[in-house]
Amino acid sequence: EDLELSGHEHYMLKEMREQPDAAETCLRGRLDERFATARLDGIGLDAREMRGFRRVKVLGCGSAYYVGQMGAQMIEDLARIPADAEAASEFRYRRPIIEPDTLYVAVSQSGETADTAFAVSEIKRKGGRVIGVVNVVGSTIAREVDGGIYLHAGPEIAVASTKALTNMGLAFAMLALHLGRLHDLSFADGQRILRGLERIPAQITQILDDEPAIAEVAGEIAQAASTFYIGRVRGFPVAREGAQKLKEISYVHAEAYQTSELKHGPLALINAQMPTIAIIPGDDLAKRNVAAAEQVLARKGPLVSITHPGVELDHLGVRSIVVPKNEPELDPILLTIPTQILAYRAAVVLGHDVDKPRNLAKSVTVE
Ligand code: AGP
């Protein structure tokens, strides 16, 4: 076991640090410069079929569902096709309408999550087209889908998923680019996204290099009984995933909220004992997000921002984790990385079994 850890204290730490290489592997051979698109031969659907889809529905559980939300947003942004994500665990218990012109996407690291596998078989039974975004080659979901995108993240041992999630983000970005170029995304925008994808592995390394500073913040978060993670639009799935990670391994309560919804209720909970982690990308919503941060600070709530260079926060005197900027559509992939480190370091400070958190299994193969 020690050998496999290759000197790392935990598998989660090792897997977080493997992310730049894992991302390279995921992108390798799939970026098509000539047509400014992504080559995803494993999907098994031809250009005519892909063009015919009028809607995309992503299904996954837990963190895979949150990355699925990021992916749906990327598909709407780049392909301008209505897209949304739903928890596969809910989908299986309602009577979903399966539409022939909807592309269903099942997302799962293990490919063995029962709720997601059941959703796939239900869609197939009713004649829907479903592709997989899966890490484990030959797994149940990978075998059942019509085609898909393998993540090539390598084996993931820690219960808390990290490198597989990052590669899910990349897979969705490539799917969105591919669909976009078959719809109305311009050649120039296709090239812009390709350039952005190429920058991601090195940018992940930059974030990982900031680990000591993030660890300091984690020490403070670990002392809290409860925390908020806030973000809006593209930042909201980042907040959801960040909150999930913290709960999973540090057992500190974390609630994800849309920044825009804070004033409609949860602001009442803000006080000096309730830290907020605010996702504030350097986009057209930055000013509004900074205003929300001011509201938290006015109520004496401690605040940490996960943000981009150039976002004006200095006047607030808050701690900021500054993440390198990429294209707006791809930023959520990178903004998520500090939330992994935060959760990991908080769990270490609290002395928890990081790789095997209580009550959780790596893949949930029961209902
Ligand atoms: C991630 O950190 C969690 N352990 C969990 O939410 C996980 O993402 C979920 O159970 C889905 O697993 P899958 O990707 O293997 O389907």
UniProtKB/TrEMBL annotation:
SIS domain residues are 45-185, 217-357
Q: Where located? A: Cytoplasm
Biological processes annotated in GO: fructose 6-phosphate metabolic process; protein N-linked glycosylation; UDP-N-acetylglucosamine metabolic process
A Gene Ontology molecular function term of the record: glutamine-fructose-6-phosphate transaminase (isomerizing) activity
The top EC class, named as a word, is transferase
Q: Which UniProt keywords apply?
A: Aminotransferase, Cytoplasm, Glutamine amidotransferase, Repeat, Transferase
| Catalytic activity reported | D-fructose 6-phosphate + L-glutamine = D-glucosamine 6-phosphate + L-glutamate
Domain of life, per the record?
A: Bacteria
EC assignment: 2.6.1.16
Q: Name one GO cellular component term.
A: cytosol
For this UniProt entry, what is the primary localization, expressed as one broad class?
cytoplasm
According to UniProt, the name of this protein is: Glutamine--fructose-6-phosphate aminotransferase [isomerizing]
| Record organism | Dermacoccus nishinomiyaensis
**Record lineage:** Bacteria, Bacillati, Actinomycetota, Actinomycetes, Micrococcales
